[in-house]
Amino acid sequence: MALSVCSVGPWNLNPIALATPSFPFKSLKFPPFWPTQKVKMGPLSVSPMGFGTWAWGNQFLWGYQESMDNELQQIFNMAVDYDINLFDTADSYGTGRLNGQSEKLLGRFIREFQEKKGSKRDIVIATKFAAYPWRLTPGQFVNACRASLDRMQIEQIGIGQLHWSTANYAPLQELALWDGLVAMYEKGLVKAVGVSNYGPKQLLKIHDYLKDRGVPLCSAQVQFSLLSMGKDQLEIKSICDSLGVRMIAYSPLGLGMLTGKYSPSKLPNGPRALLFKQILPGLDPLLSSLRDIANKRRKTMSQVAINWCICKGTVPIPGVKSIKQAEENLGALGWRLSSDELLRLDYAANESPRRMIQNIFQTSRELNSRCGREQAYFLSMKLTFLYHLVSGKARADNGSVSFLLVQEKCQLIHDWGCHTIAIRSYYDRPLEYTSKKPGRPMYFRTITSYNIAFYFLHCYISY
Question: Domain NADP-dependent oxidoreductase: where (predicted)?
Fold first, then answer.
């Protein structure tokens, strides 16, 4: 490019005038998103940000409709065109008759993209396998992996992840699931293995367990954002750094609370409104700092929040439902927050009186304590969607809730957020929970079996 260099003297020190193009500036063509350098994730090279597909198939929380599929295909194509190659999904993403829909869509989008372009791209699918109570053996977990391969119609999964730990409620099942990860890796069904929702202690345990069997742990997926930067998250990040494990940050926008689109007087539709109503009133200082930095940088609040996760050394996987969201998320790449901006956001996050509720399936010191369990149960019970879990009868009176399992082998549908869980029960006794005093945590009164009690109470508050 020909440049005309201006003479410089004490009377002309304008740095912009030192070098100017010899043709109109507007004729320059810049890509809308700058190229990004890949980061290592075990044996894989992935983009510094991936796309999460929890909403692809989820009608209950995200309002998915099959009419959205064409736009989702465009989102996928745009992402790959701009060098995003990491897509996170799960075998439980998709609700009701659409169970597994997220994996099916991803597989279809990959095939159609490659047919259109006439060439293969290095696309990394990271899928999670649910620790359902009926997956009790390594073989059953391997079968779950094969089922995901069939849904996506691919030969190998990039990263096979254990969706959550069962250590808190079924420790014997945990070892079988770990052996299942080993088996699917040895059989070549997955290129690498990872975990999701593992706390510091369990993360160290599974890393050592896999290492002894010659299987490297490549990733640990954790709820991580300006709204969920607790001691556990920081310790997990430190452990990941020391072990060479890449940390994947899910919910980097706090289910949308960090986008600036919502307020106590403007809540989203659906179940998220219950959560937003309680948390948003305490977020003014944090959102104010986020908004100020975004305005000064001519970015959006979402882009700043995602970039903060990248600057912390994680790979964020924000969800996308529209072209507009995809474009906005891509704008989080190609630049970095300054150290002063990071410090300001860290301070605002630490001083915030409200935090994102920790995922109930996340193993941690808090949830291993009685206090943490009671808090989780209370929060779960507080959300009225629990009434929709039962195929049969439900009764609520004076602070107590009884779920009466009236049919043998009845199927209870838990459709909160990311899971549609079919729990087959051989029990007909009621599960009862009662509050000692109004406003106090809910306590177990009767428990018939760990799987029913667990799935009733450990509902996904956020993901």
Answer: 48-346
